[in-house]
Write a structure and sequence with these properties.
The protein is mostly beta strands. It is 5% helix and 60% strand. The N terminus is likely disordered.
Amino acid sequence: MSRSRSRWLRSWPVPAIFFYLVLGVAWTAGAVEMVGFDLSNQMEYSWDTEEQEETFENWLDVNYRLDILTTGLRFEAFQPSETGQRKEEVSFIYFQVEKDEIGLRAGDYYAIFGRGLTLRSYEDRDLRLDNKLTGLKVQGYWDQLEATLLAGRPPRKDRDNADEMRGLDFSVLPAPGLSFGYSYVALEGPTVTGKGTELTAIRTEAFRGPVSFYGEIARRTNRDGYGLYLSSNLALSGLALTVEFKDYDRIALRTGDGLEYNSPPALTREHTYSLFSRHPHTLDLDDETGLQAEASLSPLEDTSILINYSYTAVHDGGSVSPAGPELFGEWGMPVFREAYLEVSRELGHQASLVAAGGASRLEKATVHTGVIDLSIYLDELNSLRGELQGQHTEENGEYDDHMLTIEYTRAPGLSLSFVGERTNKSDLQKLSGEANRWFFVQLDYQLTENHDATLFLGSRQGGFICTGGRCRWEPEFEGVELKLMSYF
């Protein structure tokens, strides 16, 4: 068999093609009654006029739902992608049967145990992250008990040398408002050093009236390491308060290829305004401790206030004693601190105003950021929005960034934005070849009920894209981008 034919067979699994062929014939003949069909397609095309490079990325997801059977696949085409990768293949395929409170899934799947201290397998296309598992997953629900058992392998072309993962998770609800859980995950394989990685965790969750509590502690059983996450919430009329604590020490569940399969809460705020995200903190599961507190309140009618503070440090000497977490001991060196304040107010029925400000301190930078966001409602369908962002950074000297956005929106499916940005970085502070000014026009338009399009023309500064403490650097860009989302 030729190499190209062998690659084609791996990209398009023969059993899957046979199954969908039989299913299509049976459906056409009326032997199978379809009870559900979902199809979505995400296409992104860009042409970089500065680098004279184009990229094309496409994700096509198809799902069938029958009586007790759900099955689906994803076809990806990168020619090439933003990361330079090129491929055209079925990258995700599964078959799932559910009957009598038991579900059996074979093929590709994602999973999360608790809050992610022991396992969090998921896809995030903005981060270009996909740490799926391929294998078998069984789930069951009996009265007050929920259980999950799984076995699989991370994605790797050389399947004979891929790592292997096994996991068990269950939760029991002994009384209303109270639950206990246990998780176990083992990662083994020829690419993992030593005896692999084993994580166990116990957790509890309780709520009564306006107060709730969640706690989870994980242990790396075959090597010194632990993880601890605590969260408490208070919800009253006009007031919501959340306090969280984290302590992660040598707990990363990492394959030989560098993929991480656990991702607990990072306890840093995910901002909606661009400049606040320019200097993020990246989650480090091998050495990190800290807390986050957030309060939202409405002291006056039509006025809301949000206050957030987050603190992250590394342990003394890079780790703490393997005897366990030091909740009230010396935290060591802080690596990220941020205070954020946001005030929103409705100005009658014709306008609204958001004012936000924050200060953050990293290991090598101090950053102050402010935002003014004003929306004017012309009528029931049309509105205008003006947004001004400013940021002062002390890092290898000082510099300022400013961003101005003018946006027109017509409900329900049209938005036109004009965005300009400038910086006064010196040549020593800028990246090689980085500009001082950027400007772009972006049109978001709902073509039909099932199709949404976004057109970008111009240039934008490079920056981080972050979700849940995971970040990806997106370089400076000048050119054209087209995105199309379709749902059926």
